[in-house]
């Protein structure tokens, strides 16, 4: 069982607010990922990191930003939330090839 | 372009029957494949994986088959149970160390 945590699990906010979605893992994995997923649909990679101070954009264009100051922590920030950002955000970490996912944050922007 | 896709978006099976979920991939250079199970409101959970130098791998009640000739991957679940109801994703790792997820198949188990 992978130890990867995401907070909050659910978030409802108004348009224009700045939000940070937290992701932490206690396994010492170098690789971490953020995915966006609409209900019942495929996962879209929006950011990834291969280690401290390493961040890259994924396949899906996103207005979010990430940081990787510590191995165990990979927060995702939206400077100004919009209704189009409503989705589920999944964080994952990996020691190599297999990714282990957190429970997700369901974000609703009104 | 690279893509991983599932043949069927939904699958309904009777409890106790075997389930087969299929996946097609397009990148012949992919060397690692994973099946994930995602229950409602949760993140994907690793089920089983297989490397490209293998054709078959078995776990507890699950078997993954890889046919590199036709670029096809399948997940077989034996004696399907209500707890198996979920969305199943296949994923491939390409030669560029990139993991691509398919669109998902929703499995419903009929009691």
Comma- or semicolon-separated keywords:
heterodimer, A: 110 residues, mainly beta, seven-stranded mixed sheet, 50% strand, B: 111 residues, six-stranded mixed sheet, five-stranded antiparallel sheet, 0% helix, globular
Q: How would you state the average pLDDT of chain B, rounded?
A: 89
Report low-confidence residues of chain B grouped into runs of 5 or more.
none
| SSE arrangement of chain B, N to C | EEEEEEEEEEE
Series of secondary-structure elements of chain A, N-terminal to C-terminal:
EEEEEEEEEEE
Shape of chain B: globular
**Biggest sheet details of chain A:** 7 strands, mixed
State the oligomer. Answer: heterodimer
First-to-last CA distance of chain B: 40 Å
Rg value of chain B = 13 Å
Q: What class do helices, strands and sheet pairing of chain A give?
A: mainly beta
Number of strands of chain B: 11
Helix amount of chain B: under 10%
Q: Can you give me a brief rundown of this structure?
A:
The complex is a heterodimer of chains A (110) and B (111). With 110 residues, chain A is mostly beta strands.
Polypeptide structure, described:
The complex is a heterodimer of chains A (110) and B (111). Chain A has 110 residues and is an all-beta fold. In chain A, strands 2, 4, 5, 6, 9, 10 and 11 form a seven-stranded mixed sheet that branches. The N and C termini of chain A lie far apart (35 Å). The mean pLDDT of chain A is 93. With 111 residues, chain B is an all-beta fold. Chain B contains no helices and eleven strands. Chain B is globular. The mean pLDDT of chain B is 89. Chains A and B meet through strand 10 of A and strand 4, strand 5 and strand 9 of B.
């Amino acid at each position: 069982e992978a130890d990867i945590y995401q907070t909050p699990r659910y978030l409802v906010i108004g348009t224009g607010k700045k939000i940070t979605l937290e992701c932490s893992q206690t396994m010492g994995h170098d690789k971490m990922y953020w995915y966006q997923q609409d209900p019942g649909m495929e996962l879209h990679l929006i950011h990834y990191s291969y280690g401290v101070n390493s961040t890259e954009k994924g396949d899906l264009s996103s207005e979010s930003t990430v940081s990787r100051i510590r191995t165990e922590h990979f927060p995702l920030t939206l400077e100004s939330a919009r209704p189009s950002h409503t989705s589920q955000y999944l964080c994952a970490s990996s020691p190599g090839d297999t990714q282990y996912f957190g429970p997700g944050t369901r974000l609703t922007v009104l | 372009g690279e893509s991983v896709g599932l043949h069927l978006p939904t699958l309904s099976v009777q409890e106790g029957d075997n389930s087969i979920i299929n996946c097609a991939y397009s990148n012949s250079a992919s060397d690692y494949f994973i099946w994930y199970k995602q229950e409602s409101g949760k993140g994907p959970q690793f089920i089983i994986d297989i490397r490209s130098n293998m054709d078959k791998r078995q776990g507890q009640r699950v078997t993954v088959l890889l046919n590199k000739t036709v670029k096809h991957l399948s997940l077989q679940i034996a004696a399907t149970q209500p707890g198996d109801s979920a969305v199943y994703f296949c994923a491939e790792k390409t030669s560029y160390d990139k993991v691509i997820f398919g669109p998902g198949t929703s499995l419903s188990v009929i009691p």
